[in-house]
Amino acid sequence: MPYYRVVGEIPRKRHVQFRRPDGGLYAEELMGEEGFSSDSSLLYHRYLPTAIIKAEAVEAPASTTLTPNLPLSPRHFRTQDLPTGGDLVSGRGLLAGNADVRMSYAATEAPSELYRNSMGDECVYIASGRVTFESTYGALEAGEGDYVVVPTGTIHRWVPQGRVTAFVIEAAGHIRPPKRYLSQYGQFLEHAPYSERDLRTPQEPMLAEGEEVPVLVRTRGGLTRLVYRNHPFDVVGWDGCLYPYAFNISDFEPVVKRTHAPPPVHQTFEGPNFVVCSFCPRPLDFHPEAIPIPYNHHNVDSDELMFYAGGDYTARKGSGIDVGSISLHPAGFTHGPQPGAVEASVEAVRQGHTQTSELAVMVDTFRPLDLGSAGLSVEDPAYAWTWAR
């Protein structure tokens, strides 16, 4: 993250004696990215974070396998038709993915077990409902429209407050603000569509008691359940630039041009070989002869997956796309507005329409996306032919 935070109690200097009230030493844990050559945080535990007493392999569910997008086709998945079940970890239905990133959808009311993803960062978009995110760094409250970014290796769990739906992005690396939004020292620049003030971070330690506490751990080798001698939520303080945070999509400030602007102006995060974009309500293009919806386009280096989170996406009206839909437009296929949408958008402006209402999260990948079983189970088979109507 671009800026330094301190939460709870820490000693004046790093790596010096820091004693508990009973005279014993707190145990340091340095969480560091890229071989300790990038962002890190130093956490102070009441107990040893290394003390495990049991380990057992966990079989990965068969639903995590991917199949190629063949024959090459645009796809429409209706997440509204996926069942409620599991939790925000075990209940993820795989939509699409590749070696860099996997996208899933979850609908649940149940709290998750403690979980650590040691393969990469996660970005969880809360589509509806409210949830408490609990972690070794502290707790965050999140609700509709929040992105929650979880650093690699963070032990955490999700506690819904009623039914929650979420679009989940799991990276094989780190998810960060785009470099072009930051100064060489990591501060958000004036042209960035959001700033440090828009980010919500844990404000105080979260302490929990417990012994023989299981934690599900995901690594490149598979799933393991480690049992810790003491509860991992025993951190009395931490400092650094690596921590979970929440950012609400309504705080994204759209860039507006006189004519239609391409997707990079909507970029919110970047990951290894993919980007995340936020399409938010904004004023329509205001050139007197502007066409205020996207032109037909072929992003020759990317597959484009779009989660329609709210509002009315005018460009695809009549295609079956609705709130909760996921569209996948692969490289090798030119896509654009629904037939008749261009003329309709121009007429709407003529009638006094001045603003979009769309709300969507888009993931563009630079390697082809394969298809997940959850997505295929709720696919609209007629979607590919909607441009030929």
UniProtKB/TrEMBL annotation:
Pfam families: HgmA_C, HgmA_N. Residues 279-384 form the Homogentisate 1,2-dioxygenase C-terminal domain. The keyword Cytoplasm does not apply. Its cofactor is Fe cation. Gene3D superfamilies: Jelly Rolls. SUPFAM superfamilies: RmlC-like cupins. Residues 22-248 form the Homogentisate 1,2-dioxygenase N-terminal domain. Keywords: Dioxygenase, Iron, Metal-binding, Oxidoreductase. Belongs to the homogentisate dioxygenase family. This is Homogentisate 1,2-dioxygenase.
